[in-house]
């Protein structure tokens, strides 16, 4: 009990940081499942070396 009393501020800050990290990871996973990307390509696939790996519906030329 003394440990908790002596370190309560560190424990609270650690729990808040853990919650933020979990929120970020969950958001990234949900965005990935929805097809959103966190890359900064801007949607211009013409000069992107990874164009075949993302934006599958945009890679087909009509």
From TrEMBL:
Provide the transmembrane region boundaries.
6-26
Q: Which UniProt keywords apply?
A: Membrane, Transmembrane, Transmembrane helix
**Protein name (Swiss-Prot/TrEMBL):** FeoB-associated Cys-rich membrane protein
Q: Which domain of life is it from?
A: Bacteria
The reply on keyword Transmembrane is: yes
